[in-house]
Specification:
Blueprint (H helix, E strand, L loop, with lengths): L4 E4 L4 E4 L3 E3 L5 H10 L8 E3 H17 L7 H12 L7 H4 L5 H13 L2 H20 L10 H69 L1
Antiparallel strand pairs: 1-2, 3-4
Helix pairs in contact: 1-2, 2-3, 3-7, 5-7
Amino acid sequence: MSAKQVHCKISNKSIHHSEAMPADVIRESIFETIKKDFPDFTKDDYISLKELNKYRAIHAAGVLAEDNPNLDNAEKEIVNSIEKNEFISKSPYELKEKTTLSQLLADKIAAFGGSWRFILSFMVFIVIWMIYNTVTNTIFDPYPYILLNLILSCVAALQAPVIMMSQNRKEDKDRQRSENDYKINLKAEIEIQQLHEKVDMLLLKVSEHNKKSKE
């Protein structure tokens, strides 16, 4: 075997040393998880990074299952990202969904209906309507302006569901962002916990090495 080749105990294959991890630097909890499947796995053996990520994912799934045995889709996605060693965060551009013409129209109407421009323009329209039907000779909606009241009622009746449609879409976007933040935070918490355990293990090894060197 080449000096740069090591033997992976799990896959039983020879791999480059840069793609492997010595068993003695693996976290104890993950090491015990591997031992359940491979009882003859020792601290002197090596494991490929691919297999190590697989067992990291198994260990993470076990940690998450302590609170809830049935993992939800977000937690399964976290476990899958750990196994594949992939990023789980998504940019705002990836979270954007395809917008239909009706949805785009609803957003535009809701944005205009909730602005000062709409309020001022509608007030101008009402004042002009009332003046025209008061001082001109061609009155088509005399006081108490029944037609104007009907128009205002129709606008209010149509505007409310359109605004609700737009708000529902915004709630869906906020929910996607919140779920994305939750997955990022949960994975970060798991990774940080693993780093703490690994640092503690390395400090312990350094301490043992210093004691031996003093002896």
